[in-house]
Design goal:
Layout (H helix, E strand, L loop, with lengths): L8 H14 L2 H27 L1 E2 L2 E2 H32 L2 H6 L5 H29 L7 H27 L6 H15 L11 H7 L3 H13 L7 H28 L1
Antiparallel strand pairs: 1-2
Helix pairs in contact: 1-5, 2-3, 2-5, 3-5, 3-6, 3-9, 5-6, 5-10, 6-9, 6-10, 9-10
Length: about 260
């Protein structure tokens, strides 16, 4: 079972992905800043003009904190799907890595660390942009939000990587976005409080990882103390660990059969 457990070799995989991404650093960072700017202008100011305040805060603040969580989800998901599939099935990078002393656990762990880091970069860009608009104030709780953002990226990166291990083409990813990512983006509290949903929808949202990321990050980014911290962290961690196990097993079965 040595192949299952990660070693320090995972950091080599992380470094390899970073060096490749560094070549596209400027356009990538530009996209991280432009996307949240458009959201904040269109929804925070445009729709916020009609909404006013929500849960005791300006709507632009409410939505900015939610978009931080959804951005970590989207960025980690894209990295765990499209980029990981390219490395796995197109460039055969994983097979090349397995020809070295590194094991499958190193590959999966390195990929998940990279997904979490990319998600954190995207989320931090939104925090910076939102602070310019006064939607998020810099205070000590923002520092506590960073580990939550990284855990969110790990969770969604692991889920995406498990899905990638089953995919036969890029087109297959549309099922995941349509059936999982988009519903979470719309119904997990990013744009409005969960209590406004029907009871059955609230029950469904309660088991989805983005809900717990939002419930942790929104208070931290608005200067409040989150509630049920242990529960939210446990759910995110459970998704990350279970998806890690599944992704490792499926990738090994696919690459070494």
């Amino acid at each position: 079972m040595a192949w299952f457990l990660p070693s320090w070799g995972a950091l080599a995989v992380l470094r390899r992905n970073f060096l490749v991404w560094r070549k596209l650093l400027l356009p990538s960072l530009l996209g991280n800043f432009v996307d949240p700017l458009l959201y904040l202008l269109a929804l925070g100011y445009g729709l916020g003009h009609f909404v006013g305040r929500m849960e005791g805060m300006p709507y632009i603040t409410f939505i900015a904190s939610g978009i931080v969580a959804s951005s970590a989800m989207n960025t980690a998901t894209f990295e765990g799907l499209y980029s990981a599939y390219t490395r796995m099935a197109v460039q055969n990078t994983y097979l090349s890595i397995l020809a070295t002393p590194l094991q499958m656990g190193d590959i999966v762990t390195g990929e998940l660390l990279w997904c979490a880091l990319k998600g954190a970069i995207s989320a931090l860009a939104i925090i910076i942009v939102a602070s310019f608009f006064g939607a998020i104030d810099w205070h000590w709780q923002v520092l506590l939000a960073l580990p939550v953002i990284l855990l969110t990226g790990l969770s969604f990166g692991a889920i995406a990587l498990a899905f990638t291990a089953l995919s036969r083409s890029y087109d297959f990813f549309m099922y995941y976005f349509t059936l999982a990512v988009t519903p979470m983006f719309l119904f997990c509290g990013v744009f409005y409080p969960l209590h406004t949903l029907p009871a059955f929808a609230q029950n469904i949202a309660a088991v989805l990882p983005l809900t717990h990321a939002v419930l942790l990050l929104r208070p931290l980014l608005t200067g409040h103390a989150p509630t049920q911290v242990a529960l939210h962290l446990a759910v995110l961690l459970a998704y990350a660990l279970s998806a890690y196990v599944l992704a490792t097993v499926l990738l090994r079965r696919r690459l070494l059969r």
